[in-house]
Amino acid sequence: MSGSTLTKAPAPEPKTGTANPFRAMTQNLRESGIYIAFVVVVLLFAVLTDGLSLSPTNVTNIVLQYSYVLVLAIGMLIVIVAGHIDLSVGSVVALTGAVSAQLVIGSSQPWWVGILAALGVGVLIGAWQGFWVAFVGIPAFIVTLAGMLLFRGLTFYVLDNVSLSPFPEQYGKVATGFINGLMGGYGYDAFTLFIAALGVVGFAVQQVRTRIAKVRYQQVVDAMPLFVLKIVAVAVVVMAFAWQLAHSRGLPIVLIVLAALILIYSTIMKSSVFGRQVYAIGGNLAAAQLSGVNVRRVNFWIFVNMGFLAAVAGVIFSSRSNGAQPSAGTSFELDAIAAAFIGGAAVTGGVGKIQGAIIGGLLVGVISNGMQLLGVDQSLQQVIKGLVLLLAVAFDVFNKRRGGVR
Fold first, then answer.
1. pLDDT in tens, 110-120
2. What pTM value is reported for the model?
3. If DSSP codes are grouped into helix, strand and coil, which group holds residue 179?
4. 280, 291 in Cβ contact below 8 A?
5. 26-35 in b/e burial notation, b at 16+ Cβ within 10 A?
6. What residues contact residue 156 under an 8 Å CB cut-off, 6+ apart?
7. What is the pLDDT of residues 239-275, one digit of tens each?
8. 19: which strand partners?
C-alpha cells in the first residue's frame, strides 16, 4: 500500500520489579513460616534453659543425636513430593546396621566393608520396594508397611535376636568423630569457622546469581533491602552455629556428610530433570504422563534412593550406638515423615524443599532436646511432638484452601 504509513507497536514493558516485602512473606508463608518458627523455638528454649540449650556442648550434641533423622528426612521429602509414603525406613536402618555389625564385629571384616555392605543392602531394599510400587502398581503405603515387618524380621534373623558391639574405633568416628586443629585457634577451632565462612560465601554467590538470572528473564525479585537482609540473617545464624561448634569439639564428621547430602540433593531437586519430574508426578500425575515423563522409572529410582539414604542413616546410627540392636530404628519413619511435613511438604505431593525438611527435622530435634533439658516427662514430649505435626499439616491444608485449592 503505497500511501500508508506503518507505525511500530511500542515494545512491551519489562516485567521485572521488586516484590512487596509483606506480600512476599504472606504468599510464601508455608516456606518462610518454618524458618520463623524455628528461630522462635530456639530463642524460647534458650530463655527457658538459661542459655543451656545454646551452649557449645549441647549444640554439638543436637547435631550428633539427630543427624540420622535429617538424612532420612531428605529421602522422605522426595518420596512425599512424588505423592508416596515410606513406612519401612526405621526397619531398613536396623537391618543395614545389623548387616554391617555381623561383618565387622561378627566376622572381623574391615570397617569399610561393613559400610559398603550396608549401603549395598539399602540399595537392594530400595529396588525391591520400587519394583512393587512402580512396576506392579501396589500403593507405596502397602508395600512399605509390608517392608516394615519384613525387614524388622530379617534384622532379628541376622542378629539372632541379640545385640552386637562394639565396633572398631574407625567405624565409630563416622558419627562421633571430629575434625579439629587443622588451622589452629586459641580456645576454638579455626577450621570450623573457615568452613562455615566458605558456606556463607557460597550461599551469597548462589543467591546473587539467582537474582541476576531472574532479572535477565524479567521475573519479579525481592526488594534489595529484603534480599540483603536474608543473606545477612543466614550468615549470622550459620556463623553463630559454627562458633558454638568451634568452642566445643570442632567440626563433626557426620555434619560434613550431612552437608554434602543437602547440597547434592538440593541441586538434584532444583536443577535436574529427575527433580523436575518428581515435582511433576506429585503435582499432577496425569499431566506428567501426558508430557512424556516415565513415571514408572522415576518412582522406581525414588525408592532406590530412599533405600540408599536409609542405609546411610543405618551406618550413622549404628556408629553412634557403637553396635547393632534388633530394636534399632523404631519409629524413625515417623520422625522423618514429621520433619518433611513440618518443613513444608504438601500432604497431596508436588510441594516441598530439601532445606525445609532439614529445618523441620531440626525443629523437632530442638523441641525434643529442650524438653529433655527442662526435665519434661517422656509421655508429654510425645504429646507435644504429635501436636506440632498436626498443626503443621493443618497449616498446609489452610494454605491450600486460602489459595482456592480443594
1. 999 999 999 99
2. 0.87
3. strand
4. yes
5. eeebbbebbb
6. 326
7. 988 888 888 888 899 999 999 999 999 999 988 999 9
8. 222
